[in-house]
Amino acid sequence: MKKVAVCILLGIILLSCSTQPTDKQEENSLTTEVQQYLDAYTRQFVDLYYKSSLAQWETNTHIVEGDTTNAYQTQLTSEALAAFTGSKENIEKARQYLAQSNKLDSIQVRQLRTILYAAANNPATVSDVVKKRIKAETAQTEKLFGYNFTLNGKPVTTNDIDEILKDEKNITRRLNAWTASKEVGKNLKTGLTELQQLRNKTVQALGYKDYFSYQVSEYGIDVPEMMKINKKLIQDVWPLYRELHTYARYELAKKYGQTQVPDMLPAHWVPNRWGQDWSGMVEVEGIDLDGVLASKGPEWLVKQAERFYISLGFDSLPKSFYEKSSLYPAPVEAKYKKNNHASAWHMDLQQDVRSLMSVIPNSEWYETTHHELGHVYYYMSYTNPGVPPLLRSGANRAFHEAVGSMMGLAAMQKPFLANLQLIKPETKTDETQELLKEALNYIVFIPFSAGVMTEFEHDLYVNNLPADQYNKRWWELTAKYQGMIPPSPRGEEYCDAASKTHINDDAAQYYDYALSYALLFQLHDHIATHILKQNPKATNYYGSKPTGDFLKQILSPGASRDWRELLKESTGKELNAEAMLNYFQPLMVYLKEVNKGRKYTLSENI
């Protein structure tokens, strides 16, 4: 009898054990549940994202003064996307599942973090603030790109202004063009003040200190570390920048017939509206790229950039790219305006890829077409079954810019140009002048991007910079980092920072560009030395399938991999400025010789 009782008891226990889920079964059940949630979220997100992208595309490509239709559609679709991504349900779900992240696979965890990050930009807990911010951002975009620039009472485009600042030797005409370029800031100051407050309030609702901190967090680091990285970049390039600054002061004074060499560079002297690129100072004899390209036409530039990527083993652009993109300036007789800043768009996170440009046949746009298609091919590379739509972005934001800028650099090197018969193979050029021209672009950009722009936006959002100090702070930073001053005092009726597109519509992210420059030289150096076995200063990527394979290895994972691991795995090194400094090192000897006897006005260290 006792034996029977024991057997029955053992049977009950065994039956009970067999019906209780194991840890593995619970884990499988959880991953299935999470995947179902992610799939449902993705379907709705992609639908709303596409509708929002389409509305924004119209707002950027068809701006009609007084017509609010596009602005209204952009506001509606942006609000719908914001309401979904910032919903309480999605915030709670993402948090609930992330609390059990140790039971999920890494791709699921990354998607959940992406969902929570997106929610912080549009939390339903402050839906009124989110709606106000969306409305304010739409209005700011229309004011910025719908602005009528005039010079001497006549309408001009930003391309016209850029050409004057690049080539004009008459100081008065340069001053007039520069001044005209800054007038747009007056119309944008009130909007920027409103956006400063609304952007901060939006992300603070989900625990971020401010909007700048929120944007930095996407890199997986905090604000002090990001500022430290940018400061280090400036310090690394400062000795060379100091030489370039001294060179520019004396050479430009000579060019403009000025007897006095100023201690600080007047802003209207340099060949760029913000002083971020001085390469227009130097013309390399033997290469008349503008002249050659003028006969090619704008369509050739875009098609040739595509042929470059195809030569590396990438696919042709989809037919829809040419049907739906806005690649050339709006016709003179057009009743509308368009955004004049080049950009690439992944409209639906799937197959609809586009570019917004205003291509004219010159060397600047030749480089830009290669850059923008770099973004487009990045989109196409990570649009693959292994990368969910929520992770279809760069390894970090700087990666996107680095790839585009690197391809622009490669397309401008002499062997590459000779391969395309844009110059003759036997063309002799002054290699020092070539290097100088490149340094006046890449090195000069670092103090502007890592210093002026990054610190201004840090102060704007982290320190809540008062509106009555915008211009004062902007010019303090340009003096400190660029050694540049305005032609005359600029009071707070102006808002010169707001004349820079990114301050308005790509806020608190400009350090992306600074990091991308260090990254592009790191990647370029690896391609030149380890794949092409060529001098990094004289490469020809064209037709190199191994180079294409290397790029695909970096591009195709999108944001499904940790960016530090991906970089270390691809190049064997962590992010650093070593390759950039090595590239320009020979220029120091030349500049020190040229600047001998000249007065240095920037401090030796910063």
Automatic annotation (TrEMBL):
Pfam families: Peptidase_M2 (PF01401). Zn(2+) 1 binds at residues 371, 375, 401. GO terms for cellular component: membrane. The active site is at residues 372, 502. It comes from the Bacteria. Residues 1-21 form the signal peptide. GO terms for molecular function: metallopeptidase activity; peptidyl-dipeptidase activity. Zn(2+) 2 binds at residues 371, 375, 401. Transmembrane segments: none annotated. This is M2 family metallopeptidase. Glycans are attached at residues 102, 148, 152. Chloride binds at residue 219. Keywords: Disulfide bond, Glycoprotein, Metal-binding, Signal, Zinc. One of its GO terms (biological process) is proteolysis. The keyword Signal applies.
